Amino acid sequence: MPKYFFPAGDAGEALTLRGETAHHLLHVLRLKPGARITLCDGNCRDYAAVLREVDAKGASCLLELSPPVLCETEPFIPVTLYQALPKGDKMETVIQKSVELGVHKIIPLYTAHSLVKNAEKKIARYQKIAEAAAGQSMRGIIPLISPPMKFPQALGEAFFPVHWLVAVSPSEAPDHSPPVSLRSFFRAHASGSIGLWIGPEGGFSPEEITALIAAGATPITLGKRVLRTETAALAALAQINGITE
User: Fold this and answer.
1) CA dist 53 to 1, 26, 64, Å?
2) Which residue, among 120, 105, 37, 118, has the nearest Cα to 74 in the 3D structure?
3) DSSP letter, residue 239
4) How far is CA 148 from the centre of its chain?
5) Residue 178 CB contacts under 8 Å (≥ 6 apart), including other chains
6) Are 167 and 205 in contact (CB under 8 A)?
7) Which pairs from 50-54 meet CB under 8 Å and 24+ separation?
8) Would the pLDDT of 159 be above 70?
9) Which of 79, 115, 131, 168 has CA 20 to 30 A from 8's CA?
10) 115 to each of 86, 88, 122, how far by Cα in Å?
């Protein structure tokens, strides 16, 4: 059974759940008093919980909480994914699977070759997908889905990860900055948070790649095959997990 999240400030010896989480527990899973579940406060603290009471209308439930234990499922190296918005519902798949693979934060991007518009309207849905995926994969946090940013805005952020990586095909990288494998990168950089940049269907423009490299990003290759944009982030996160965990 997946874990369920609640606001950290509500933790105590008992907790009352309402809204969508209570509805899911009581009307989808049909849990009865005595049932046991795992709750998380979103700050890497897990609570074993026992359902004690259900209100007469089935709109809320009271749970008894055991003392918290540290959630140990979070990756050693936090990764912020800068994902160029793909067409259709592909972004939803990227969010779901990236959260399962341990991403820390996702920043959707409008880039020179992006065809998507008005993604701001989907942020609430994107965040719900992230929460569901975090619960299913037993995460200790709910990764934040940022409002979409234009490429120059994201590039000019005042606060950014220690290392920026941009996934490129061999033909995209400038001659003076050939791409390296993730394994080679981590041999030289054993620690530090990561900002992973993934382009849209048409890839980053040459100007965008040049700007990223000028800002200190390292071009990386994910292998000999050309990957779709919705595959690239997942392949990179899986490789990072395999190397660092």
Assistant:
1) 20, 11, 9
2) 105
3) H
4) 14
5) 170, 219
6) no
7) 51/25, 52/14, 54/26
8) no
9) 79
10) 7, 10, 15
- What's the whole-number mean pLDDT along residues 31-46? 94
Measured at the alpha carbon of residue 183, what is the angle toward residues 206 and 151, in degrees to the nearest 5?
Answer: 30
User: What is the rounded CA–CA span in Å between residue 93 and residue 90?
Assistant: 5
How does residue 162 score in pLDDT terms, banded at 50, 70 and 90? confident
Mean pLDDT computed over 230-243:
95
Report the candidate in 211, 72, 67 with the shortest Cα–Cα distance to residue 138.
72
What do you get for the CA distance between the two ends of the chain, in Å? 24
Determine phi and psi for 6, rounding to 5 degrees: -145, 160
Residue among 37, 122, 3, 214 at smallest CA distance from 106 = 122
CB 199 within 8 A of CB 82: no
Please name every residue paired with 77 in a beta bridge, in sequence order, or none if there are none. none
Please tell me the distance from the alpha carbon of residue 194 to that of residue 234, in angstroms, as a whole number: 14
CB atoms within 10 A of CB 242: 10
Question: By the 8 A CB rule, do 203 and 231 touch?
Answer: no
Confidence band of 185 (pLDDT split at 50, 70, 90): very high
Query: Which residue, 128, 94, 107, 71, is CA-closest to 196?
Result: 107
Asked if residues 154 and 106 have their Cβ atoms less than 8 Å apart, the reply is no
Helix (H, G, I), strand (E, B) or coil at 83: strand
Q: Residue 194: what residue type? A: I
The Cα–Cα gap between 125 and 145 comes to 10
